[in-house]
Amino acid sequence: AMADQLTTVSKKRLINQAGTVSKTEMEGIERAIIIQLDL
What is the sign of the dihedral through the CA atoms of 21, 31, 6 and 39? Predict the structure, then answer.
């Protein structure tokens, strides 16, 4: 797994919302995380 390449960000650092993510984009993000974590 490549979990060392995954970074989390505190919600406190997210001051302004930059935009929205569609359901399709979120599904792609979830698939990428699953692959990166070898789940």
Answer: positive
Cα first-last separation, the chain: 8
Amino acid sitting at position 27: E
pTM to 2 decimal places = 0.57
Band of residue 1 on the pLDDT scale cut at 50, 70, 90: low
Q: Rounded to an integer, what distance in angstroms lies between the CA atom of residue 16 and that of residue 22? A: 18
Q: How far is CA 35 from the centre of its chain?
A: 12
3-state secondary structure of 32: helix
Q: Are 28 and 35 in contact (CB under 8 A)?
A: no
- Please state, in angstroms and rounded to a whole number, the distance separating the CA atoms of residues 31 and 4: 17
